[in-house]
Specification:
about 10% strand; 3-stranded parallel sheet; 3-stranded antiparallel sheet; extended; 4 helices
Length: about 190
């Protein structure tokens, strides 16, 4: 005879306060996660992954502050030419399609993501700095910059131009670099 004994203990896990963007539908896996799709040829691996990414594109990824984050899909697949389904993805840029894997390719993708992140962070810092000085009267700017030389250095890079007039980064919103925002390996 088997006797069932309930366990009496409290479990109050501490949940993360990280502000990761999530799908608005509320039914999808919570970011960040990894997926390995393994099955026989013709079983629908590519179709199902493209369907999931398309769902994210259609439903948008929104963080706790209501900011929408756009997807970047990267495909490395030796059968890319045989899968026209990828053409349905708005988040897949021609430059992010690769037909042969190599460690060097993966490193260049990671380096590109880091570069894009740095450009976005620099742009956002410029906007922050500009907002701090835009309403300061001209005769008080020198005193402000003396106490805030870091803000002066940031704004000097683009000659104190309005943020709308300086080059914009490829990605305006960028999450922490924990890996790929959206990546698919076949």
């Amino acid at each position: 005879m088997i006797e069932e004994v309930p366990l009496n203990f409290e479990f109050n896990p501490k949940n993360s306060k990280l502000n990761y963007p999530q799908c608005r539908c509320g039914q999808c896996p919570q970011f960040y996660w990894n997926l390995l799709s393994v099955a026989s040829r013709g079983s629908g691996k590519t179709y199902n992954i493209c369907k999931l990414i398309k769902h994210y594109e259609d439903n948008k990824l929104v963080d706790n502050n209501g900011k929408i984050h756009h997807l970047r899909t990267i495909v490395i697949s030796p059968t890319i030419d045989a899968n026209p389904i990828f053409k349905n993805l708005k988040s897949l840029d021609e430059t992010d399609i690769h037909d042969n894997y190599s460690d060097e390719l993966l490193q260049s993708i990671v380096d590109d993501i880091k570069k894009n992140k740095e450009e976005t962070e620099a742009y956002n810092k410029y906007i922050e700095a500009y907002k701090k000085v835009v309403n300061i009267k001209e005769n008080k700017l020198n005193a402000f910059f003396e106490t805030h030389p870091d803000i002066y250095d940031i704004l000097k890079e683009f000659n104190f131009e309005d943020p709308d007039e300086i080059p914009k980064p490829k990605y305006h919103n960028f999450r922490r670099f924990d890996g790929f925002s959206q990546c698919f390996f076949q």
